[in-house]
Each structure stands twice: as C-alpha cells, then as structure tokens.
UniProtKB/TrEMBL annotation:
This is Thymidine kinase. It holds the Pfam family TK. Substrate binds at residue 214. The active site is at 114 (proton acceptor). SUPFAM superfamilies: P-loop containing nucleoside triphosphate hydrolases (SSF52540).
C-alpha cells in the first residue's frame, strides 16, 4: 500500500490530531438520533450510552442546553446525573471539539441531550464531525413541540442522521393510551400558541408564579385539549 495524499476538500478539522487509534484506523462513525415525547427516558438512555462507551475506554463529551436542572449537566428523572457542557445556538460544535483536542483531550464520541434545541447548522456541524473526524454522535431530543410541530433540530436530525430511533419506553396519557405529544399547560389550561421554547418540568410546581408545565397526551386528548383528572395532581403516569 502506498501512502495516499489527503483528499481534496479535506477540512481544517481533519488535520487535527484526535480520537486515538481511530485516527490511524478510521472506522466509519455514525450520527444516531433518538427521539420521543417528554418523560420517555431520553436523558436516562443518553447517560447509559455514555456509561457503556466509557467502560470501553472511550472518551466522550456530554453536551446539553436548557437542561431542567438549570445547570450544565445531563440529569434524568430517575435520578442519574452527569456533568455536561452547556451549548447555545451560537456554539460551533466543531470548534468546541477542536478546542478539546488542542488541550490534549481525546474525543471519541459526543452525547448531545436536548438535541431538539440545536440549529440546523449545528446538526450539520455534527454530521461533519462524524464524516471528517470519525467522531460518533448520539443525539437525544424531543420529537415535536406543544403545537405538534417538529423542533428545528429534530427536523434536521431526521433529515441527515444515519440512524433514527423512536424511543420505545412507553409514556402513557392519563387515559392509559400511549402518550405521543407534549401539551403546554399554563394556569391549569392547555395552550396552543406561544414561544416554541419555554423550559419547564413535567411535574406541576408548587410555586404559585411558576405556572407553566408540560404534560404528555395521546393524540386524541391533545386534539381535544383534555388534561384529565390528574392534571392538578403530582406528576403524570409514566413508565420511566
Ligand atoms: Zn389520552
């Protein structure tokens, strides 16, 4: 075998040393997207994937934004938690990874929680990291907003991800049917208009001025706007 010249169009990223052995033996990396409604166990799965990779000696970065804990970490409602890097719409994810390489840290994979909040450009940056730098990316996000429309990041991930999986942990509507859609509840009533992103928890908060929360409903009850008898109670039915 004769050494090959770098391919035309190789990006700046491709000359950055990284990813240990995977640079010498480039294996195809993948962009994987896991999505579902609130409470379906996305963050729990994200932390499990990170745990499985780190056990194999791989090094990863965990990214999130607008996490419900209001701090730079990935937390799940079943009590797991791990520190994460907070990103926002202005973060260039390629530069973020390159900065870690420059500091001498390996980055074999990225775990991206709350991926629905990514911009389309940021999803394309993730795809570039996969294709040009062989970084595996696992993105986790909500499917639709409270108006039942795809989030921008979700839409782009559905368009370009190598692998898309709807998370199979079943969240139940109050009626017992599978919950597919997120309802925004303000002052005890369901609303259908407003800003796409209002970060709140799915459990009704006791504070009288914290009057926004989300509830997962089946399609029929989302259409009807019926929150059920548990709307004012502690949380909602969920199997996660
Ligand atoms: Zn229902």
């Amino acid at each position: 075998m004769t050494p090959r010249a770098p391919a035309d169009g190789a990006t700046l990223l491709s000359v950055v040393p990284a990813a240990g052995d995977r640079r010498r033996h480039p294996a195809p990396a993948h962009l994987r997207f896991f999505h579902g409604p609130m409470d379906c166990g996305k963050s729990t799965l994200a932390l499990q994937v990170d745990h499985n990779h780190s056990r194999q000696g791989r090094r990863g970065l965990l990214l999130t934004q607008g996490d419900r804990s209001a701090g730079p970490q990935i937390s799940s409602r079943v009590g797991l938690c791990r520190e994460a890097l907070e990103v926002d719409a202005g973060t260039d994810l390629r530069l973020l990874v390159r900065d870690h390489w420059a500091a001498g840290h390996r980055v074999d994979y990225l775990i991206v929680d709350e991926a629905q909040f990514l911009t389309a450009d940021q999803v394309d940056q993730l795809a570039e990291l996969v294709d040009e730098s062989h970084v595996d990316v696992y993105a986790f996000g909500l499917t639709t907003d409270f108006r039942t429309r795809l989030f921008p990041g979700t839409q782009r991930l559905l368009e370009v991800a190598d692998d898309v999986q709807r998370i199979q942990v079943e969240v139940l509507c109050w009626c017992g049917l599978p919950g597919l859609l997120n309802a925004r509840v303000v002052d005890g009533g369901m609303v259908r208009e407003g800003e796409t992103v209002v970060v709140a928890d799915t459990a009704p908060t006791p504070a009288p001025d914290a009057d926004v929360h989300y509830q997962v409903l089946c399609r029929r009850h989302h259409v009807l706007g019926q929150l059920g008898p548990t709307a004012a109670g502690p949380g909602q039915l969920a199997l996660c």
